[in-house]
Automatic annotation (TrEMBL):
Stated name of the protein: Aminopeptidase
Active site (record annotation): H115
This protein's record includes keyword Plastid: no
Lineage of the species this protein comes from: Bacteria, Bacillati, Bacillota, Bacilli, Bacillales
Pfam families noted in UniProt: Peptidase_M55
Natural source organism: Pradoshia eiseniae
Binding site for Zn(2+) 2: D8, H60, H104, E133
A single GO molecular function term of this UniProt record: metal ion binding
InterPro entries for this protein: DppA_N, Peptidase_M55, Peptidase_M55_sf
Superkingdom: Bacteria
UniProt entry keywords in alphabetical sequence: Aminopeptidase, Hydrolase, Metal-binding, Protease, Zinc
Annotated binding of Zn(2+) 1, by residue: D8, E10
SUPFAM superfamilies, sorted: Dipeptide transport protein
Length: 274
């Protein structure tokens, strides 16, 4: 059995604000250790319960957060930036299942540190389906026919996952009080629960179908201000919808839509506010 695992940071146990997830700030080093130990608890459980190969993709910010020396020795880690497929780099049809750990809810929704790729995105859509990182990444997995077996993060990420993916196993390691406060488990308790639920997710994998993306999807991204939309619209093939901050791109498939999203959001970050 071959498992793919994408690990973000905002949904990790005990992490609630930007000081935990920004590499230059004081809480980051302890946060990345918690992140690594949490990921390893899941990985170790997967190996114990039948996984023969596990590829883990570090999926937060510059994507070099996980401490490779603390991971199970049989783990293969994808680390660093730039990656052509970002949070889903390395996935293909050879995998039996996908696990999302440390995930958060989408922009404009309640939950701890909610956003969609950058803080300048208000909403993101594939056709008429509102999605965030979780949904977009699940669609990429579905393109390859691979189901998302388990999503771990805060309670709002768990709700979002359950609404998108029928029968998916979810784990809420913290409950959002606000966007920067939560009632959280301790890392020790969370690791025990995550290990147990990961084994259950493998058992249930035959009951979960891939989230199949639409053919020729239309991507729309609503930005926080017009300047961000202008920057995103510099990408060839995009259209800035008149009277809005929404930029549209008609893609040939979900992979092209995903890369278009990456380019548009990177361009939008060039916007300044002075």
């Amino acid at each position: 059995m071959k498992i793919y695992m994408s690990v973000d940071m905002e949904g990790i146990t005990g992490l609630v604000d930007y000081t935990h997830v920004s590499s230059e700030l004081h809480n980051y080093e302890r946060s990345r250790r918690i992140m690594t130990e949490e990921a390893d608890a899941i990985i170790t459980s997967l190996f114990k319960n039948g996984a023969e190969e596990i590829i883990v993709n570090d999926s937060h910010s510059k994507m070099n957060n996980l401490l490779v020396e603390l991971l199970h020795p049989d783990t293969q880690l994808i680390t660093g930036d730039v990656k052509p497929y970002s949070m889903m780099q390395g996935l293909d049809a050879s995998f039996d299942g996908v696990i999302f750990a440390g995930y958060h809810a989408r922009a404009s929704m309640p939950g701890v540190l909610t956003h969609s790729m950058i803080f300048g995105v208000r909403n993101m859509y594939i056709n008429d389906q509102a999605i965030g990182e979780l949904g977009f990444n699940a669609y990429v997995a579905g393109y390859y026919g691979v189901p998302v077996l388990m999503v771990a993060g805060d309670d709002q990420a768990a709700i979002e996952a359950s609404q998108l993916i029928e029968n998916v196993t979810t784990v809420a390691v913290k409950t959002a009080i606000s966007r920067s406060a939560a009632k959280t488990l301790t890392p020790a308790k969370a690791k025990l629960i995550l290990a147990e639920v990961a084994s259950e997710a493998l058992i249930k994998r035959s009951h979960i179908k891939p989230l199949v993306p639409p053919e020729c999807p239309v991507l729309r991204i609503e930005f926080a201000n017009y300047g961000q939309a202008e920057w995103a619209n510099l990408m060839p093939g995009t259209e800035l919808i008149e009277g809005t901050t929404m930029v549209k791109f008609e893609a040939k498939d979900i992979l092209q839509a995903y890369q278009a999203m990456l380019v548009m959001t990177e361009l939008a970050m060039h916007t300044t506010f002075s």
